[in-house]
Amino acid sequence: MYKEMNHLEKLEAFSVYILRESYREFKNLIMLWSIGKDSTVLLWLARKAFFGHVPFPLMHIDTEYKISEMIEFRNKTALKWKLNLLVGRNAKALEEKQTFPDGKTDRLTCCRHLKSEALKHTLSGEWPRYRLNHDSEKFELDSNTEPYTGVIVGVRADEEGSRSKERYFSPRDKRSDWNVDDQPPELWNQFNTDFAPGTHLRIHPLLDWTELDIWEYIEKESIPVIPLYFDNGKGKRYRSLGCYPCTTPVDSEAENVRDIIDELKTGKFANIAERSGRAQDKDDGGGLETLRREGYM
Amino acid sequence: MDQQKDNLKVVIAGHVDHGKSTIIGRLLAESGSLPQGKLEQIQESCRKNSKPFEYAFLLDALKNEQSQGITIDMARCFFKTPKRNYIIIDAPGHIEFLKNMVTGAAKADAALLVIDAHEGIQENSKRHGYMLSMLGVQQVVVLINKFDLVNYDRNVYEKIVADFSTFLGEIDVAAISYIPVSGRHGDNIVTASENVAWYKGPTLLEQLDSFAIPQQPVSKVFRMPVQDVYKFTADGDERRIIAGTIETGRIKVGDEVIFLPSGKESSIKSIEIFNHPEENETGAGHAIGFTLISQIYIKAGEVMCRKGEKLPEPGNRLRVNIFWLSKSPMIKGKRYKFKLGSTRESAELAEIINVFDASDLSTVKGKQQLDRHDIGECIIETARPVAFDNIKEIESMGRFVIVDNYEISGGGVILEKDTAGKSVLNQHVTEREFLWDHGLVTPQLRAARFHHRGKFVLLTGTKESGKHELAKELEHSLFNMNLNAYYLGLNTFMKGLDVDLEKVIWNRDEHIRRLGELARIMTGAGLIFISAIDDLDRYDIEYLKQLNSPNELLVINIGITDYEAELNLPENYDMKTAVNEIKKTLNRENIIPEYCI
Predict the structure, then answer these.
(1) Rounded distance between C-alpha atoms, residue B49 and residue B47, angstroms
(2) Across the interface, do A24 and B300 touch by the CB < 8 Å criterion?
């Protein structure tokens, strides 16, 4: 029986369309997986799009300051879903302690070092990538150093200001720069899937989703998420996940997905930004636009 | 499950400075969509800086402060009424940003077109009206703004309504309503205005809530552009899945289907959805997959249709309306990438019939190119036929985009197939042959000397079919019989004549074109010119045949492909037999004499 599609089904169908479009057009395609709720939903949508398979690698940029449960969840899920997982990091900055927790930089510079720079150079293949070996369950240096030219990212337009200016397929130039005001048009279901040599594209299948949509979809599909999103028994939970020195939990007694949905619907957080627990946003004037122009996700 | 209501996407367009931001600001404020204290805060800041408060400032303020949980930018603004959620897409009024305007409007369910009552209908009022119609936005409402500035004069309202509905009528659009509003004073935004007591229509808010959310077109005939065909072998997955998003109609397990333009047929074996109970029927809107009862070779870009229903029409010479958005003009003789549904084809501009100035509907005849912001009625030709539907019946299957220099540079709608004109290729060959500077040695003299005529022998077939080996053996065998045969390997070609194409993305058709032109020269020199290419379809072959004319082409097909060739050989051919078969065919066609066999 055909049933009229509801709101979540329409969002899902469009994201699946974008993912299939990406897979069709890009030989060197990769999906960024931050282990958070959005990119985990994105990963689930890839399994939807490709009928249980994920036919491209996933990349995680490890700042080594991630909350430890995140890394556990990452490895467990990757093994269970047979994911082709690559991990990269800014080894030099970590070694020289050019980080905020080490007191040598401010928050934004730390983000730039451990995230933007690490991402840029790992994607391009200049810096080492470590691939999860499913037999030994260890990460091994990957011999493939080809650059990835299509990068799927789980950003949402409602998350913070600069993200709402993104297109579904967003060209970045050689230096990963983003020309916000002069992006090519997108018409109907046709997107800019061609790219000039030396450039790459960021692909945003979740652009139309809201925080509430994400949680409702997690509930509908029973998608596993990290327990950090739930009340730890002390009336605190994380609403957005990042590095522990710069991420603080919010006051909430939501113990499960349903509780979070109910909490969001009460409008409790209506006037508080989702990323307000992420200290680097404030340091960038709230917009993150500077970081994003440079390739921050 | 108690899920959220649907979103309605509304684009707000109009000439620059006609007050779009003020209207949005007022709407947010009066519908209670602003964060607490925001309005007072902005008013206070205006008072301190001794500048008059404007509702438009709210937008600017919100753009800069995302910490308030409301997101606004030049593109999107979320707000809700008790009835449903809205995404308001603010389309820039400046002509420079027309591509942003069309990006916003192309995904809208409804449009608000703002006209300044005082300034009246301006260039971009019309241009945006025209674009909305081309983009297929069905529900259009005109807001006649700044009505306070014309003292709420009914005559002004009547005049704009009369003039603008005449304009819209010419482009086949009927506005649902014309609302006299004042963003600055709040007339008819959320509450009905007493200043225009004669106006009995809805306020803006009432109008928004009465827009219809478009339903999925399930009652239309079935269409699904094939986005891809998957065979993931991991974990012993044997399924071969035809994937795509269904545009219109519905389909059940067991239904017979036909793929166009190839015309291949099968029936639905199963509907594939990950993490979902088994379904036996699906329809419009779903991004889905199917397995078929028989293994037919289908490529991405075909349209899956249901047998027994009206089918789309395949055509390669199309009369279209194109709007051009790129700084570099659309010109004749250049190859562009044409995208319709999941089809990607190489296409060129064959003729320009008319160019419109969208701001006054005047037409310019005799233009040789489409410049930025032009709308042109043109003929375009695709390299292979594309399956399309009448835009009035199935919108999504009748509109396309043109990619130039890696970017979507224009869009358009297909009006009909053009059957009258002569194809670009045909014109080219006629002209080329007419201008050919022939030497004194005629083909007859050459044939008499060589004891054979010139001919292009082309071997095609699947990748591992041994075409190249056979081509080389054939060359050798003919040479040993004192015939002038020459084999050209395509890899040689790519590194030589075609080396400039290495960095061109959409290069396949250009490779083929050059091969065709080269074949014309080699056969003209009286040679038996032999080459081999993977997976040529019947359109590629037709193309090569025309380019090589007036000389002849012999196609030899190895293994199974789409094309019924003059000679079909099995994939596991025996070399000696195969060479002899080809020679027999050449003899039958009076290319080479009998003693050579």
Answers:
(1) 5
(2) yes
